[in-house]
Amino acid sequence: MKHTTLLSLEQYLARTFGVLGTIFVGVFFVRFFIVDAVQISGRSMELTLLTGEVHYVNRMSYWFDTPQRYDVVQFVEPETGTFFVKRVMGLPGETISIRQNTVFLEGGSDGPVELRSDFLSENMLTDVKYGQENFITVPEGSYFMMGDNRTYSTDSRDFGSVPASHIQGRLIGF
């Protein structure tokens, strides 16, 4: 003889809310600790990233590693708390210079080394901002960020180097 057990309303609601709670916690965990979506706003990363595009940020990317030169990252600007997406150009302790429309890594035994610029559009103007020195030493534990559309980019040339603790993660695919 088969017995069927009917759930009371309390048991049904408890199970339903338990499942919904588990789903909520899972989504929360993924959203804030693993992958996040970011919608690009502004021209500072053109032609690499265009306004309105949605990209994904790997929030775990720097748990066991550090940002590398040319990574495209999302970070929080230290002074204003504004989120930005930019490219890492200078690493902790390095000295970079901006001259002759080019970014150089200084201090090597062979003299300055021109940093890669194949992601820039032709005739892109790369210059220091008003009042900025030509040579910038990146503090330990910080990174120098620049947009790919340098003429229209608010970046480390404006607000200085970004502490590693402010970097949210690396954009997937860049």
Provide the β-strand percentage band. Answer: 25-35%
Give me the CATH architecture, please. Ribbon
| Number of H/I helices | 2
Q: CATH homologous superfamily name?
A: Umud Fragment, subunit A
Q: Strand order of the main beta sheet, please? A: 1-2-11-3-4-9-10
Runs in which pLDDT lies below 50 for 5 or more consecutive residues are none
Count the beta strands.
Answer: 11
The radius of gyration over CA amounts to 23 Å
Would you mind describing this structure in some detail?
The chain has one domain: Ribbon (Umud Fragment, subunit A), CATH 2.10.109.10. It contains two helices and eleven strands, in the order αβββββββββαββ. The strands form two sheets. A seven-stranded antiparallel beta sheet has the order 1-2-11-3-4-9-10. The chain starts with 8 loop residues before the first helix and ends with a strand. The model has no long low-confidence stretch (mean pLDDT 88). It is α+β, with helices and mostly antiparallel strands. A hairpin with a 7-residue loop joins strand 6 and strand 7 (113-114). Helices cover 17% and strands 28% of the residues.
